[in-house]
Amino acid sequence: MKLIYSKWNEQSLTDEQRLEKLTSLFSYILIQTNGDVNEALEWMQQLDEKYEFFDKNLSFGDFVEMLKDKGYIEEAKDMYILKSKGAVRVRKDSFKEIFSNLKKSADGLHETPLTGTGVDRDNYTKKYKFGDQATNIDPTQTLSNAFKREGIDDFKLNEDDIEVYETEHMTTCATVLLLDISHSMILYGEDRITPAKQVALALSELILSKFRKDSLNIVLFGDEAKEVSVSELPFITVGPFHTNTKAGLELARHILSRRKSSNKQIFMITDGKPSAIYEDKNSRRIYKNSFGLDPKIVNKTLDEAVACRREKIKITTFMIADDSYLVRFVQDFTKANNGKAYYSSLNDLGEHIFVDYLRNKRRMEE
After folding, report:
1. Domain shared by 154 and 276, yes or no
2. Element (H, E) at 249
3. Among 135, 245, 279, 359, which is least packed, fewest CB within 10 Å?
């Protein structure tokens, strides 16, 4: 790729900054096109016609070559495909986009304010007690205590002089993110699945990059429920599905039962009431009813909420619609699980989920 440099002024971006912004835009479009690189590039060209993203210094062809050079995409059989490095870039861009919009009053960093027996040092010290690690001794404060007590000429070190660094108590948390992929997530002219996917990508990046001892599993639920890997997230599509909330919860509970962490939680993003369940586990036949709140479906789903409560799995529901049937169901569901529920607009869905995740981590220490 050849770059031509022009005279810089305060109002202009450097070519590197332009590339960064355009790549981030490309990442977001990829989420909307379900990882279809060719369609995303077509969108970029259409946007360029209106907003003039590219010029002689940085052409559209230069941009495509940059994506190839960085290993984000590759050409195969006259079409472009997203490489694993490109999927990671989409995840990182989602993380930056959501966290850049978090309010300063949000919880911020993930560490709990309490102290304990972790391995990350705090800036404060405390008196040594049996069991504290010798590697956490603060030599400066320890010597200072000894000098104050005995003086420099008659130096003697006692156990009471020893001070050690406080350590941040880091808990582990097992989380399952339940993502509704029923047909309503793209109906009525509103794209609900793209913000939900962006949140899932960002949450996975948060855990993978900062809280590696935590675990995150992604479960999709429509007519059926299935687990997907983080690498599959950009390619998730919405189908002509009903909402089998019970199947999603059941799979999430099964996943969490294999986790050793004592702190387990489910985050569920949905825009509709439950409208389907399996009639028979063995045959996997689906019983469906989209009209109102079907007692057969609702009661089976509430049973899962109770089962999660018994296994000490907290469920937090994020409603991205205010349908009266959904609200009524979530009220009963939250009561059955002793969990929490939020009504979230699509714009602040990420903020609600991330702030709640960080707060939950702190409450685990209380």
Report:
1. no
2. helix 245-257
3. 135
Are residues 247 and 144 part of one domain? Answer: no
Exposed / middle / buried, residue 4 (Cβ in 10 Å: 0-12, 13-18, 19+): exposed
Q: What residues have CB less than 8 Å from 144, skipping those under 6 apart? A: none
Q: Is residue 254 part of a domain?
A: yes
Backbone torsion region of residue 7, taken as left when φ is above 0, otherwise alpha when ψ lies between -120 and 50, otherwise beta: beta
Rounded Cα gap, residues 172 and 279, in angstroms: 36
Does the structure show a pLDDT above 70 at 114?
no
Same domain assignment for residues 127 and 222: no
Residue 354 has phi, psi (to 5 degrees) of -70, -40
- The domain boundary, picked from 64, 82, 100, lies at 82
Residues near 9 by beta carbon (within 8 Å), at least 6 away in sequence: none
For range 192-202, the mean pLDDT: 93
Output the six-digit token pair for 66: 């940059």
pLDDT digits (tens, 9 = 90+) for 12-53: 567 788 889 999 999 999 999 999 999 999 999 999 999 988
- The reply to whether 120 falls in a domain is yes
Question: Looking at this protein, which amino acid is placed at residue 89?
Answer: R
Q: Report the domain count for the chain.
A: 3
Domain housing 141? 115-168
Q: Are 245 and 253 in contact (CB under 8 A)?
A: no
In this structure, what is the dihedral angle of CA atoms 20, 25, 31, 35, given to the nearest 10 degrees? Answer: -70
Going across the sheet that includes 313-319, the strands are 225-228, 215-221, 174-180, 264-270, 313-319, 340-343
Position 141 pLDDT exceeds 60: yes
Which residues lie across from 17 on neighbouring strands? none
> Residue 137 gets which letter from DSSP?
B
Q: Are residues 63 and 162 in the same domain?
A: no
Mean pLDDT of 167-196: 85
Q: Are residues 229 and 140 part of one domain?
A: no
- Read off the pLDDT of each residue in 218-225 and give the average, rounded to a whole number: 97
Residue 332: phi and psi, rounded to 5, are -70, -40
Q: How many contiguous H segments (helices) and E segments (strands) does the chain have?
A: 10, 13
pTM: 0.77
Cβ–Cβ < 8 Å for 197, 236 = yes
